[in-house]
Amino acid sequence: QKEVEQDPGPLSVPEGAIVSLNCTYSNSAFQYFMWYRQYSRKGPELLMYTYSSGNKEDGRFTAQVDKSSKYISLFIRDSQPSDSATYLCAMISGGSNYKLTFGKGTLLTVNP
Amino acid sequence: DSGVTQTPKHLITATGQRVTLRCSPRSGDLSVYWYQQSLDQGLQFLIHYYNGEERAKGNILERFSAQQFPDLHSELNLSSLELGDSALYFCASSVASLNTEAFFGQGTRLTVV
Questions:
Q1: Which of A98, A109, B14, B93 is the most exposed place for a label (fewest CB within 10 A)?
Q2: Hey, is the C-beta of B43 within 8 angstroms of any chain A C-beta?
Q3: DSSP secondary structure of A13-43
Q4: B30 touches chain A (CB under 8 A)
């Protein structure tokens, strides 16, 4: 079983829709949770970082962490065509090895 | 622009050859990380350097090596290249050793023919 599982999609939604992106993980040592956005032929760009269970909001983006279920989500409200990209979840475990473990990414297309 | 510079952007080379990928981190960042991204494996962590010292190793092959120099730039050396080494190689940097806010470069696309 992979440490981080992410539905690769693709996911296609109309402009203005609410998008829900999800990852599950198996390693209970993961303590830090990130979402990255990657446009085609570009490097990943950090969107949000959370540490504790619960919700964190930044503009149209909300990151949600449920450590008891080992489940994280990213919600995008009022989605825009410019949100079309691959979204990657990433996690870091505690301790001294700060290895960033990524999901495989979900390809999102927002249609005008 | 993330502030992380990777060169070259594209590289085409033959099997068995050796190449060097270069990364300049953001000003002030002490940590450099290398990742390999392929279609089937996704983003895989290779190695992490902090202020010139190796901190962690991931799924890095023995044919691959890296170093971080006193000016904090880093190089990833790939030798005895195989077709399966074709991938995007990303460098990321962060201020601290804990990379919750890492900034990625644009990547080097390596094609082995």
A1: B14
A2: yes
A3: EETT--EEEEEEE--TTEEEEEEEEE-TTS-
A4: no
